[in-house]
Amino acid sequence: MLITVSCMCQPALYEQNSEVNNLMVQYEADRGSLNRFYFVENSPERRDRMNALVADYLKQVAQLNFDKLPTGSRVDYILFKRDLDEQQRLLELEKKEIAQLANWFPFTSGIYEMEKFRRRGSQPDAQQWGGSMRSITTSINNLCTALTKDSSITINLIRRAQGTVRGLRAALKSVNEFYTGYDPAYTWWLPDAVKQLDTALAAYGQGWLQRAKAAPGGKDDGSGIIGYPIGKEEIIRQLQLEFIPYTPEELIGIANKEFAWCDAEMLKASQEMGFGKDWKKALEKVKNTYVPPGKQPEAIMKLYNESVAFLKKNDLITIPPLAEETWRMIMMTPERQLVNPFFTGGEVLSISYPTNTMKEDDKMMSMRGNNPHFSRATVHHELIAGHHLQGFMNNRYKAYRNFYTPFWIEGWALYCEMILWDQQFPQSPEDRVGMLFWRMHRCARIIFSLNYHLGKWTPQQCIDFLVERVGHERANAEGEVRRSFVGAYGPLYQLAYMIGGLQFYAMKKDLVDSGKMTLKQYHDAVMHENAMPVSMVRAIITNQSLPKDYKAEWKFYK
Fold first, then answer.
1. Across-strand partners of 344?
2. Cα–Cα distance between 532 and 337 in angstroms, integer?
3. Cβ neighbour number for residue 246 with a 10 Å cutoff
4. Are 393 and 527 within 8 A, CB to CB?
5. How far apart are the first and last CA of the chain?
6. DSSP per-residue string spanning 402-428
7. What is the pLDDT of residue 10?
8. CB 277: neighbour CB atoms within 10 A?
9. Three-class SS of residue 351?
10. What burial letters (b/e) apply to 156-176, b meaning 16+ CB within 10 Å?
11. φ/ψ bin of 482: left (φ > 0), alpha (ψ from -120 to 50), beta (otherwise)
């Protein structure tokens, strides 16, 4: 139930603070100190110490009087405890998986102890260390041979093993850099032993990489993209962490409904352009409006100026002058364009456009996929009032909140696109086609990513879907799918654009369309609360009385 809107008149103290603030700031500082000290990935020493840290802060959180906290502080309490619980779960999972890998890493304690010994500058028995390293090297070489014969290891254990190898190599490097050249005995006895051990560890890491390619569930369907679906149970668990009370199938249903709206609008624009119901011909015309090589930065700047002028003219959000002053451009490398075929933003706008080293077909697909009408739809997504303004405000309001979520980051940026559509920012049917292309793309992201993680679609089916249903250039579709499944993105990231945007849009209906707030008041209120699940933004702005055991319940899609 929505309560009276109160965020606009909160006491000055709560503009930057909460009763949970000190705990959160201290925890982040303590965790940072411990991560730097116990830097060796997957080491038992690090795991035990981090477990102790989390347990200590869970006790401190439990001592807070939740019932006396105002809404914003209750949100901090719920989300901070959620994150601590999740850290505890992940550490327990690490412990379990390391135990399952024990036969593959019987030698780790020797390297861990050397790093521990080094920290306070103790002088080693160099000759004894050399013998120990040679013994470990022999053990690893034997395991490398055995590893090539075992194809039953699951991808989660393989990833854990790869992390363990990374940690061991980092520990060995730390030891070697500390003593080499400073300790005469170490410098006399150890260089060859260290080199041989590191070479063996590197080969062992490559062995685990090869095992990943043959892991159960990781088949190449011809696309060259090998990912690993997480399954329905894990999708639902992660949705609950984000306070999204929908099943994967329900989210796909929402995407299809939004797709139907896009289809109807696309047909209107196509007809206005003289192509009747053949919207792909309209899309083709729009793609061919690309600017010549070397002109893309100039085109982006023009679109940015139009976008910010529109926001100001319609008084849609407060734009600090320093935010306008301090964003800048870079050119995206060809390598990065393989997984990011479109320009990305934030304080640094990274422009995706052909370079001299790209093949001719790839150059054309890059230019066509980044034409001015497509870019017009996303320049405000990437800069103002999207990602750049988000980051700018996060550094200045409630900066202690560290509740990163793509539903807030990407959801808000997509919501900006929705609002500018409503405010008639597109100037022509070609502009509308450009904006609709991206909106269709966000619908498609929900459908293909969930179907993939449910085990229903292959990467190639996802690529074909983007080409046929949205109108992507094939190389761009391949880059999108590659980014989705083998990039550094969580399984929910791609669906978070549209779902997060719909959450913000539902709040707009409740608060702005009802007359409780103006658009500018609503938008400024969101920017002053920092990143968090969107249902929690709603709880703060509407002053909900949240229970300590709050669960996902807001059915935002009507």
1. 350
2. 29
3. 17
4. yes
5. 15
6. ----HHHHHHHHHHHHHHHHHTT---S
7. 56
8. 11
9. strand
10. ebbebbbbbbebbbbbbebbb
11. alpha
Query: Using alpha carbons only, what angle is made at residue 318 by residues 314 and 17, rounded to the nearest 5 degrees?
Result: 150
Instruction: Return d(Cα 525, Cα 17) in angstroms, integer.
Output: 15
Six-digit token string for 491: 């399984």
**Domain locations in the chain?**
7-100, 102-216, 234-541
CA–CA distances in Å: residue 200 to residues 110, 112, 137, 141, 210: 15, 16, 6, 6, 15
3-state secondary structure of 330: strand
With beta carbons less than 8 A apart as the criterion, state whether 265 and 277 touch: no
* Tens of pLDDT, residues 43-72: 999 999 999 999 999 999 999 999 999 999
Report residue 533 as tokens. 């699940």
CA 24, CA 119: separation in Å to the nearest integer? 28
Hey, which bits of 300-367 come out as E strands?
A: 328-331, 348-351
Is residue 339 left, alpha or beta, with left meaning phi > 0 and alpha meaning psi from -120 to 50?
alpha
pLDDT in tens, 438-454: 999 999 999 999 999 99
pLDDT tens digits, residue range 220-271? 778 888 888 999 999 999 999 999 999 999 999 999 999 999 999 999 999 9
Backbone φ and ψ of 242, nearest 5°:
-90, 5
CA distance linking residue 98 with residue 64, whole number of Å = 35
Task: Please tell me the predicted confidence (pLDDT) of residue 236.
Answer: 97
CA distances from 285 to 280, 297, 368, 433 (A): 9, 22, 10, 10
